[in-house]
Every structure is written in structure tokens, then in C-alpha cells.
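check these C-alpha cells.
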Amino acid sequence: MAEFAFGLYPGSATGAESGLVNGPADIPERIRDALDDLQPTDKSFRVRVYVGYAGNGQIEHTTPTDFTQYVAPNRKLDLVLCYRAVDDPFECWTDFIRTMLQQYAPHLATLQITEEANSTGPGGDGITPNIRAALVAGILAAKAEIQRLNVSIEVGFSATINFNPADDFWRELYQLGGQSFVDALDYVALDFFPDVFTPLPPNVTLWDAVRVVLEQFRQVNLPQAGIPATVPIHIGENGWPTNSTRTYERQAETLEAIIRAVYAHRATFNITLYELFDLRDADSSQENIFYQFGIMRDDYSPKPAYTVFKKLIAELTC
């Protein structure tokens, strides 16, 4: 059976409608303790980190900060380069990608070019002009630089699910990049949050919802861009937040149901990685769900989902 690995975003800042939301500062020692505890001995694990590109070679934000401190044996980074530049020559963007690769290559397992380029929702780069062209240019530049450096780093991009047949996102990617773009891809990441922003209908189970989304992504969305079934899918972001009406116990049950459904369908849809969003609440005192995606509270005390996630990593990593 093919590899199936786990990872997570260990920071606390979360993208919301108003931009990044924060709370108490991250505590690197506590993050490292949690990563060491969650990662099985001698098994690979990914740490998802985000760098926001603002244009002219400038970084808008990095979360978590000083992220190389979380690298350890069998634990490398999934570096996400978000694109929020306006009226910026693509040469600046591709130079930035090459610079990031030269700086961080020894620490990287994967490099994701743009974040949810087809989404204008919270955290999505789809709000940025020319995002589709930036995605294609970025993928091609990253692959060329990885080959020049002769390093083993997978390159890909992330998207959200699309059930609208009139949307041209996927078709335009192929029109812009052609077969060279497709050939440069090592994976495509899917960010999805069942039963978070849209409650499931009473007659739909989480198992069914996950299957429908994975089927649409693999069999409809990706083929529209000419991306074959041989290109693996990564689950780049998945989580289920808590608040006064969303209990810790239900979070644990929901995440286990989703992860087991993804794992059960991994061979059918060629899924090789699952990454959780996220380790710690931004601010556990805030009722807004964007502050409470963590499987730990903002003081790093574990919610029940932490124990469940640790169990699933130990059981399902292969």
C-alpha cells in the first residue's frame, strides 16, 4: 500500500473574513513538545507553515514564526507561499520563490504555491488579481529551481472543492500552463471543512460527504485541468472548530470520522497526506469559530480531539 502520512499547522493565527486573527502568543517549546508527542517514532510527519508574499519581494506575514525550529528527524516542512501581490511583475514573484527554495530547501518536504487560488473566502488567494497566472508561473519556476538545486522537494498547489460546472478555474489553469504545468505537479492539495461553514443535511453522514467531495475533486475538478489520477491528492487543511454550541467531544468525533473516511478512500483517489488545521486555538475565550480550530486550547491544554488525533496518527501512518 502507498504511503499515507500526517501533518498539521502548529501555529495559532487563523485566516478569517477580517484577515488574520490572533490571541496569546505561540510558545515554541510547547509546540515542539506537542509535535514530538504526536509524531510516531521513525515515521514521517509534516509541519505546515505559511508565508504571505506581498509583492516586490516582501513578506506580509509568516506563521508560525521561526518555523525551522520545528524540523526534526523524519519531520520536515510543508511550506505554503501565499500570493497577495497587486501590480507586481511576475519576475519578482518567481525570484521570491527561488530565494525561498535556496534558503529553506534542506528543511522542506513540500512546497505549495499559492493558498486556495480558487477561493475568495477567508484565507483564500482567489481575491488576488492574476492569481491563476501567478499560480502557473510559480509552479513552473519552483519546479525548475528544485531541479537546478537537485533536491527532493514536492511542488503543488491547493484548491477548494468546486461543484459549479460553469466555473472556469480548472480549465484556465491548463490553458495558461498546458502540459508543462501538469508535468511539473507532484501533488494537488484539497482544503475542505465538512460541517463547518455549511451544516450537513440531516440525511447526509460525514462519510458520505467526504466521499462526494473526494469524488468530485478527483474525477471532475482535476481532469478539467488535465491533471491525471497519478498525481496524488494531499488534504492540505481540514478541521472542525469548537465554541459554546460546538462541543469538544463532537470535535473529536467529527475529526475521527473524517480522517477515517479519507483513509478508507486513499487508494481509490490516490491520497497520500492528511494535514490538520490546527494544533492550538487562536483564542479560546472568543466565541467566533475562527478562534477555536485547535485540538488544544490557547494554553496548550489538550481537548479530547488531541488524544484522538494522536491515536489515529499511530494507527494509520504507513
